[in-house]
Amino acid sequence: MKLYGNSPSPFVRHCRIALIESGLDFEFLIDTDYKLSQERSPTQKIPFLEYEGNGKNKVLTDSSSILRYIRERAGQVYLPTVEDMNSFCTVNTLVDTQVNLFLFKKEGFTPENVKYLQRQQNRIQTGLAEFENADLAKQAPWSDVELRLACFLGWVRFRKHFSLDAYPKLVAFLESMDEYPPFKETHPVDA
């Protein structure tokens, strides 16, 4: 099983954590760039996972399907309730939104000069406020919602996208997660 991605991606990091937790054998190909993802994945994004199933080579092209595959292979539960799925999708929305803000900024477009991006930035704030009031675990075992949220918050901190100071409960949550060995082991680094 091969996981393609890069170290900073919160989507990739969550998959790596799940693989570590599962104990499954895997290879992490850390230097996956746009060209390789374009060649190997129809969605042209990371992460993607290559594996063998029923004697055939297969590819999963989204972190959500990768996580489900990993959890099922390991006999673990993945998003057991509708509420869990909704919270997971909410975190994914926040990650996708911040990724877009990050990439647009590289091209010179910012919330200050594009109204659409202002709405996107507001989405981040309202979403984080929702999680600031959530009942999050203080120690392992962590749910996939909590892992995804921590991967997002860790990425925000790593890239210095914005300050998390307005969310003291989320900062405390992230500090707790920082002590979790699979989270520590997958700390983002620039290649």
Please explain how this structure is put together.
The chain is α+β, with helices and mostly antiparallel strands and 191 residues long. 55% of the residues lie in helices and 9% in strands. A four-stranded mixed sheet has the order 2-1-3-4. A hairpin with a 2-residue loop joins strand 3 and strand 4. Helix 1 runs parallel beside helix 3, helix 4 packs parallel to helix 6 and helix 6 crosses helix 7. The longest helix is centred in the middle third of the chain and has 25 residues. The model has no long low-confidence stretch (mean pLDDT 96). It holds the Pfam family GST_N_3. This is Glutathione S-transferase. GO terms for molecular function: transferase activity.
Task: Please tell me how large the radius of gyration is.
Answer: 17 Å
Order of helices and strands: EHEHEEHHHHHH
Structural class: alpha+beta
Question: What's the level 1 CATH class of the largest domain?
Answer: Mainly Alpha
* Mass-distribution shape: globular
| Helical amount | 40-55%
Looking at the overall shape, the CATH architecture of the largest domain is Up-down Bundle
User: What is the topology, as strand order, of the major beta sheet?
Assistant: 2-1-3-4
Compute the number of strand runs. Answer: 4
Round the mean pLDDT to the nearest integer and report it.
96
Measured between the Cα atoms of the first and last residue, the distance is: 22 Å
